[in-house]
Specification:
six-stranded mixed beta sheet, globular, fatty acid metabolism, ligase activity, disordered N terminus, Rossmann fold, adenylyltransferase activity, 15 helices, disordered C terminus, alpha/beta, Luciferase, domain 3, GMP Synthetase, Chain A, domain 3, five-stranded mixed beta sheet, 3 domains, 29% helix
Length: 598
């Protein structure tokens, strides 16, 4: 077996060293089981996963490096064992993985959006190779050709591997770049956060220490692998810990959320992670009678992150599954982001989720207003996400206008400093300086560099509470969407649409941020309002995978703007929640009307 295994299985230089060590020490232990759409399963032991990864790594050997000291390898595969093996193959080859995904929908519009996104990333990082399915080879080559690139294009099934084969030494080192994690970004400028092996090793080591995960334990989840929470939190962390991982796809979860719970029960999994909507879905889409026979008593850590954690979700999930052995302390709200590798703060293992009641009217007092809260409600409960995950990580709440640290109890922007913070955005020097190079203005303090998150937070009783976002990013089912992307889609979907605004709202019974689109028309007389509404809904669904809660044609001038003409999305959300939009035609779930809101 691999000759590069470490002598101490609990600490590893890189992900490649960790997998090599486990392939030797846990060779026959199940590393990964992936449920297929046809109901079957793909399974790999640690020896098999390492062998497949090493074979893919060998196929990537001696690639030319175009714009970096190591080649970039873009992975555009469906979620599954081949994606995991390809990522670790990139690691073992000492290349830089660029995570991506295949087309999510088969429509023409969605295909064009995928091609455009792929071309943007290809132009940005100029990968030397693309790992994708055989069906996408020709398409990827065509898109790469449009970007004046000719990368090696290969499929995992084209690479033969032998579970008993010997492999060479692991060449990766902590300072080497491991991953470009692209943010959702605007359509014109996706940004790749540069995550090193040291970033990954630090973050994963402290996740393990906080959760006491290790060999002999199991984990189960369903998150997408091109996203940092799925790849790092749900795959890299359990596998480098020597756990047995059982995965399904996001589509499989949405079709059958009970499957996730059954896997947790049957495998006696101790760990899982999901966004808030996942836990809410497990409550509202799994009737009580179908929960019979579940045993979640083995689940010690159910992390909740990637979007705001809601008190009602914490309470509802705990109450729904307490009769099935779920312990209330197991549900652990966490805070993190790709620019800080993954997890930034988490709860102590013995602490229940903490709630803090705040006045909504004060939540913008020390920072730009956030559109994350509905107008008209005076109080809101903020869920505690614990403290910094590592002693050498500092999490500060800062007034973004003065760069001064704020005392506990005051709202401000969340800033982060520590070994988990990524090295900046690939090829974006100015954006990197602005986002990753902040300093706190306080006399006598060292010039420590901080990551500006754009998130609003408050320290209360030693825990960070995330209160909203300075930016207008919409988080829908755990995925970030920039409103300007949706607005661009809306404005191009129908010739009568002049301009549009996209924002998120949440009614009392909603378990996820709901997207609303409002548009003004070039002319209103004789316009096909119903056709516009249909075009808006269809375009946003096909290009972004979002089914809007409502779309509206509004009167000219109804969309709020600044004096310089910039959209005021937070104010639009507040007007919508208060029923103050002057609508001409409205579609919302369950009904279509004219006149709609005021």
């Amino acid at each position: 077996m691999p000759s590069a295994a470490l002598q101490t299985p609990t600490e590893h230089l890189t992900l490649g060293h960790a997998l090599a060590s486990h392939a030797e020490r846990l060779s026959a232990t199940t590393a990964l089981v992936y449920g297929r759409p046809d109901g079957g399963q793909d399974r790999r032991s640690y020896a098999e996963l390492y062998a497949q990864a090493a074979a893919i790594g060998a196929a990537l050997h001696d690639l030319p490096a175009r714009t970096h000291d190591r080649p970039f390898v873009l992975i555009a595969l469906p979620d599954g064992v081949d994606y995991v093996a390809s990522f670790f193959g990139s690691v073992l080859a000492d290349t830089v993985a660029v995570t991506f995904h295949p087309p999510l929908m088969s429509t023409t519009r969605a295909g064009r959006a995928w091609d455009h996104r792929l071309e943007q990333i290809l132009r940005d990082c100029e990968p030397s190779a693309v790992i994708t399915t055989p069906e996408l080879h020709t398409r990827v080559r065509a898109v790469a050709g449009a970007a004046a690139l000719a990368p090696l294009v290969l499929a995992p099934e084209d690479v033969g591997w032998d579970a008993g084969a010997e492999a060479g030494p692991v060449r990766t080192r902590p300072h080497h770049l491991a991953l470009l994690q692209y943010t959702s970004g605007s359509t014109s400028s996706p940004k790749g956060a540069m995550v090193s092996h040291a970033n990954l090793a630090h973050n994963i080591a402290h996740i393990r220490r906080n959760l006491s995960t290790g060999p002999g334990q199991s984990a189960a989840g369903w998150l997408p692998l091109f996203h940092d929470m799925g790849l790092i939190g749900m795959v890299c962390h359990p596998l480098t810990a020597g756990m047995s991982l059982h995965m399904s796809t996001p589509t499989g979860f949405l079709r059958n959320p009970l499957g996730w719970l059954r896997t947790l029960s049957e495998t006696r999994s101790t760990f899982t992670i999901a966004p808030d909507f996942g836990y809410a879905t497990a409550v509202h889409k799994v009737p009580e009678e179908r929960r019979a026979g579940l045993d979640l008593s083995g689940l010690r850590h159910a992390l909740n992150g990637a979007e705001p954690v809601r008190r009602r979700t914490v309470t509802a999930f705990t109450e729904a599954y307490a009769p099935h052995g779920f312990h209330p302390h197991a549900l652990m709200p966490v805070y993190g982001l790709a620019e800080a590798t993954l997890v930034v703060t988490c709860l102590d293992r013995q602490a229940p989720p903490a709630l803090h009641e705040a006045d909504r009217r004060t939540l913008g007092g020390a920072a730009p207003r956030s559109g994350d809260f509905r107008a008209g409600t005076a109080r809101t409960e903020l869920v505690g996400c614990g403290s910094a995950i590592a002693p050498d990580t500092e999490v500060a709440v800062v007034d973004p206008r003065t760069s001064r640290r704020l005392p506990a109890g005051e709202i401000g922007e969340i800033w982060i400093s520590g070994p988990g913070v990524a090295g900046g955005y690939w090829g974006r020097e100015q954006a990197s300086r602005e986002t990753f190079g902040a300093t706190v203005d306080e006399p006598g303090s060292p010039a420590r560099r901080f990551l500006r998150t754009g998130d609003l937070g408050i320290w209360h009783e030693g825990q960070l509470r995330v209160a909203g976002r300075i930016k207008d990013v919409i988080i829908h089912r755990g995925t970030n969407h920039h409103p300007q992307d949706l607005e661009a889609t809306a404005e191009g979907c129908h010739p009568q649409v002049a301009r549009a605004v996209a924002f998120a709202v949440r009614d009392e019974d909603d378990q996820d941020e709901q997207v609303v689109l409002a548009c003004e028309l070039h002319a209103y007389g004789g316009s096909d309002h119903a056709g516009v509404l249909t075009a808006l809904r269809t375009a946003v669904l096909e290009e972004h995978g979002i089914a809007p809660a409502a779309v509206a044609v509004v009167q000219t001038g109804a969309v709020p703007r600044t004096t310089s003409g910039k959209l005021r999305r937070a104010e639009a959300a507040q007007r919508w929640s208060a029923g103050e939009f002057r609508t001409v035609a409205l579609w919302h779930r369950g009904a279509t009307s004219k006149g709609g809101r005021r």
